Model the fold of this input.
Amino acid sequence: MKKFLIKASIFALVLWGFAWGVDYMISKGFQRMEDYRSMSWYEMQQGQINADIVIMGNSRGFSHFEPWTIDSICGTKSFCLGLGGYSITVEDMKYKYYRLYNTKPKYIIQQIDYYTLRNDSAPHQHESEQYLPIFYDRRIHDDLLRVGYSRLDLYVPLYRYWGYQMVIKNGLLEFLGIKHYVRDPSRMGHHYERGDWDGTELSKLDTIHATFDPAGKAYFEQYMKRCADEGVKVILVNSPTYIGANLKTTGLDAVNTYFDSIANAYNTVYWNYNENYDLCLDTANFCESVHMNPEATHQFSIDVATRIKEEMLH
Amino acid sequence: MLFNSIEFAVFLPLVFLIYWAIGYAHINDNLKLLLQNAFVLIASYVFYGWWDWRFLLLIAFTSFCSWGSGLLIAKAHTSKAAKAWTTANIVLNLGILAIFKYYDFFTSEFCQLFGISLEGLLIKIILPVGISFYTFQALSYSIDVYRKKIEPTKDITAFFAYIAFFPQLVAGPIERATNLLPQFLNNRKFSYDQAVDGMRQILWGLFKKIVVADNCATYVDQVWATYDTQTGSTLLLAAILFTFQIYGDFSGYSDIAIGTAKLFGIKLMRNFNNPYFSRDIAEFWRRWHISLTTWFRDYVYIPLGGSRPEVPVSIKNQERYKKWIIVRNTFVIFLVSGIWHGANWTFLAWGAFHALLFLPLILLGANRKYTNQVAEGRILPTWREAVQMLLTFALVVLGWIIFRAETITQAWEYMCGICQSNILSIPNHSGINALFINLALLIVVEWFLRDKQHSLDIANLPAYLRYAIYFGMCFIIIAFGGNTVNFIYFQF
Done:
């Protein structure tokens, strides 16, 4: 019995060390990959961004606003912090991470829609591999736990990579210098959505109801208050959605009323680009109902930047 | 609690340590036995209750009735009374099983057939995990007591532990009282070799479940969800991968169960013996889910007359009558085996399909032609053996399509889908290249170690090689593990 326990303990210890080593190799390799999901985390860690404007939001946040277009019109330095996901909880986690390494921005362009106010029990599950680069940073652990990760993910080596076969493979190959992985790299945190769309799929959908969760609202208001206390102006922007999708969605009036009230409460603006805005009217501007294609994105970025310059920077 | 969960990774070492701490305590043997059995029982109930504690009452009730019936059978003064107690226990246990597993299905089918409204007729209870397994285990005890194959036990703790022993409680192997119960009635001694072998078997079981079955499941589920738009070759590939999924899932579970039991000094029966290396369907059924197949053989097939039925002297054509009885018995056990898997016509059709495949072997008296390992003493099979294995495998794949489908119509459409002209096209294989390598590893290892009790039975290798294999396996499990999927056989 004694022999078995000693051998089993040694085996478990060696296995732990082995797992830790492999975890280290994957993580280091992962940092070298040019992958739009992970690149912006590493750029933030360099502490060189220090942007005047940061763009926040879900996938619409990171695909609908071209930082370079905004910079060329406004004469600012901007960076996109949008990430694939739904709600303010995970978006704010990325902003907090940004602030750990970079100075506070003057403005935040906050992409909002009714998804922003959701309060999923595990919002991290959407494209969850995008969070892997920050697991080593203990300062973000509380936030990672809050968005649904477990302590096992944070403290057990290799556990965090469970099920991500491509990340493991590419991370190891990258670490060993066998292969350099490039996948649609992001530019200033921005990443385009691409593809053609004719709206056929939308016609098959039933009515969608825009709901918002009280806990999601409470979190959003906390976030707005924190930004106001820090002296960061948050510009609320609801970027274009195809009009057909909006017509199928009930409850949008309540959502817009809520964001209007928030804008008033925090002495800021709410720009809703879903009413009387040309880009919303044509399926040709979209790759699906909520994501614009690069051409429409460029036009939208010009419009938003011009408005910021005219209405906010004076 | 799942074997492939973190909870179990904490639970198992804890239970192991406490169990053997009792085993090594300086107390008398009887007290030690009682405490160890009581601890196994508590641990097993925690293991099961982790899923849903309410159904613990059902296990306890089943255990108590079967334990009580054993005593009553032994005390009965006449064989008629003994038979009555045995029958009562069978009816009670099968009654519970029928209510939980089959009532809603057959009621809705009946009502649909006769156009009767279902309102208020269905009970809509969730199926208690493992009910088919522990019910059969409980039945085997009372039947064996009645047949005087085993003495009834008065030790209620040992009996409850026998029914609820956590490694095999929810998905087998379905143990016989004659094998498992005596192990709970005698003191267990820790064996280093047995425990290490158990760990190896657990490791191999985890590989089969996490690497093979879970990765196959992702592909198979995607293809089945859109089977009407897939090419014939993709459908065929998904059917083959489901064949490996169900094997990896179920035999993986059995390996973990048997390996875990070894850590506690308990020997469970073998449940799989390289079934996909079978040369005909009869051999396949001697190697697949052995504990269930032999259960049906001993408690259904043989009581029905088996393959040596008694023929009344009044029958003129004795041989023909005998054949008919054997065919009937074969169909009965395959149909019962099919419906045991679940309340759906597809399971019944799957059973009937296998009975039909078995039929020619029965009629030709060739059903026990292959009782040894294929290519015994040789590295590779002969061409004839290879073709036989491939043909048997193909038939088994066909059977699994019926098994996996939700309706018989869906199974038929899936098979028709395979037979399209694009069967010769390259199937969709994106994202599963690593799976092919791991499948190759599974097949090669199982082939070369086919005469062993399990495929990681490598005690005779030098230590450095063994440890390299252990760490290699651990790495493969972590690196290539699929997303956790529930064990398929939990639903049965």
In short: Chain A has one domain: 50-151+187-311. The longest strand of chain A covers residues 233-238.
